[in-house]
Each structure stands twice: as C-alpha cells, then as structure tokens.
Target: Amino acid permease
Amino acid sequence: MTSERVTQRQTAGQATDEANDEAGEEGYQRGLGNRQIQMIAIGGAIGTGLFLGAGKAIAKAGPSLILAYLIVGLIIFFIMRALGELLMYRPVSGSFSEYAREFLGPFFGYATGWTYWLFWVVTGITEVTAAATYVQYWWPSVPQWTSALVFTVVLYFVNLISVKLFGELEFWFSMVKVTAIIGMILIGIGVLTVGFSKAGPTASVSNLWAHGGFFPHGVGNTLMTLQIVVFAFLAVELVGVTAGESKDPKTVLPKAINTVPWRIGLFYIGALIIIMSVVPWTEFSAGHSPFVIAFARIGLPLGAGIVNFVVLTAALSSCNSGMYSTGRMLRDLALNGQGPKVFARLTKSGTPLIGTTVSAALMLIGVWINYEWPSNAFTYVVSFATISGMWAWIMILLAQLRYRAKVNRGELPASGFRMPGAPWTSWIALVFLGVVIVLMAIDPDARVSLYAAPVWAAIMIVSYFVLKARTPEVFAAKLPEERRESEKV
Model:
C-alpha cells in the first residue's frame, strides 16, 4: 500500500510539473535549467578549499596530498550517488532534511535541516574570510574585517534576485573558475614540456618525489590533511537543494552527479599534479594560494593577479550559494512546523527573503572573527564548517541505506538512479567519515570544531523535545504525500 501511494503521488507531482514548468515545489520558481545546474554542480566543488586551503595542506603533506584528494574524491562520488538515488526517488527542496525525516525519523529531519543551515552560515563566514584574504594581495593595508563587511553586505543584496538570475550569475561565476583552472593546467603543461619561463629549468614531474619523497612528512601527516581535503569538497551536495527549482530534475540531476569523477580528476588531482611539478612543494605555505604562488614563480605577475581575482570570485560565489541555501533550508523547516512560520514567506519572485536576511545577518559574525583573529580566522571556521557539513553527508548515506532496505522489501518503488555497490559502498563512506572525525579530534587546529559540536547537539536535542511537547502533531511521522499536503495549507 505504501509503495502504491508513493508511486501515485510521484505520478501526480510529475504531471503538475509538466503542466506548469515555471511553478516549482512549494511555490518556488522552476528557473534553473540544465546548463545552470551543471555549472552549479561543477562550481560547487571549486572554491576556497582548493584555492586557499590547499596551501596549508601541501605544506603539511607534500605531494602525497594528491593521494588524499584521490581517496576523498572516491568517497564523495559514493555520497553523491547515494544522494542521486534519493533524488530520483523523490526530488524535493530541502532534500537532506526531507529524506532524514522520512527514513530516519522526525528528530533527524529537524536536526539535519538546522545543522545544514548552520553549515552554510559558517561556510559563508569562511568564504568571506578567504575573500578578505585575497584582497590583501593588492591592498595589504586594508584590514580583513573591512573587506569581509563589504562583501557580506553586497552579496546579501545580490542574492535578493529571482532564482533564474541567481542561476545565471552562478553559471558565469563557475565558468570563470573552470576556465581559469584549465588555463593554469595548460600553462603548467607548457612549462613542463617546453621549459619556458623562470620556472622552466627546475620544473619537472620529479618534483613530486625529489624533495623528501612522495610522503616527505610521513603517512601520518597525510592522514591529518584529510579534514582539509574533506572541506574542499563540501558544497558538492548543493545540487540536492536545487531539486525543487530545477526545470527537469530527473534528467538534469543525474547528469550533474555523474560529472563528479572527471571534475575531481581534472580540477583537483590534475591541477595539483601540474602545480607541484612546476613548483617544488616546499615553496608553498599556509594562508597563500598555491595557484598565485605558482604564477609568481613562473614569472608572470600579471597572471598571478588574474588568478587572485579568479579565486576571489570563487570565494564570493560560494558565499552567494550559501545565502541561497540558508534561506531555502529555513523555509523547509518552517513549512514542516520546525521553524518560525515567518521563514515560509516568499517574495513575488520566489525568494525566501526573511530567511536569507536572517542568515546574512549571522554571517556578519565573520566580520568580528576577522577583526579579532585575522591570522587564524580561516582555520577556525574551516574546522567547524567541516564537522557540520559532514552531518549532511552522514544523513544522506543513512537515509539511502534505509530507503534501499525498504525497496528490497517491496515497500517503496526502486529509484532509476541506483547507487553502485550499495550497501557496501554506503558503509565504506560512513566508516571513512568516522575516521575523519577521529583525526579532527587529534589535530589541535581542528579540535575546536569538536568542542562546539556537543553544544550544538545539546541545543538540537533540547529544542526538539520542547517543540515536540508543544506541537506533537508537527513531529508525528508522516508519509511523503501527507507531509506535502500539509505544507500547502
């Protein structure tokens, strides 16, 4: 009976989408087309973690960082395929909290929605911090907090646009990042093969093992960079949030998810191999973009300035995506009675104005962090963003396991985009995320996030039971179609 009801609801939802292509789920506008979703998926994986965080990781692990990216990249592919299987079963806005709510229970839906919202608030702070750091490349006398304030305010107003224009802006932001990385790879290949520029005489693939070996600081230090590498991939799941505003989610989203392997291979592993071949890893340091350093070492100061501009736009793009996500996650919580009703309001253009405004206001905390601890701001916020972002991945994997179990029992229809190797691949990914959390506890710099995590967990538990006592009907387990019917009231 459950399978029949869900199938009927999916069929009805599909017919509604075809009848009105512009009307998105729960009042959203279906303004995101194929090319925009593809570039959002690509651009979501190219941001601060690669352009700025890689500097510290290279200094810590040397060339073995390439192996760390390869391993984490495989795990990310498993996570995205798990998400894809759920999205094809039921593409909805606020997908992570919806799937956790359906397959794991009301508390997990509640905690996932608020934690993912917090993740993007903290990530927004991270990206603004990185952008402020890039500004100092041109104007070192400008305080970091000043730049962070200006960027936060400007991006808030930029985000108050229609989803179609948002998608268009993100398309071009991502296009700039993709073009820049491909350009850097091609120039690096030219240096290695032809030998032009100041770096020509010393540029060689042998730089990957000639300066202390492939593991210059030992395997242990390579393992300790995993949390930095994991942070670099946070936001790849953003395509799940766009499901309710995609014109053809069941066609577009699988294509976007299947690009994950070549994105990782080209933009991360390929770029790092070229950069550390052109410039010995010993010349990179924390707080400085390895791409900027590589161009300066080649002897193209103008090129370094261009790259710095590109990574600046990358950080601002990620922050812009954060504001997009937070408003929609707050609205999903409000529609399910798990957040203030005021967050459910939409503007005529389909923008959750109030939720976005509150989130942007909280991102101003990044201004204070940059004022108080300008040298450590990035490390602090990266650690906390990593642990909160990983919660969403864990929920995706657990929800997929429960969904697949119900499919195998004949309780739910099978997804048309199944995760390969499940359930083993799901468990492998979960164990890996557990290992990363343990490593974060060992790392003094990353440990700060684990201090905050129990506090946030306590807030979630207490607030959940308080709300449940006041409105028990809100937290009662519902079938997907029953929940969506209540959201329309």
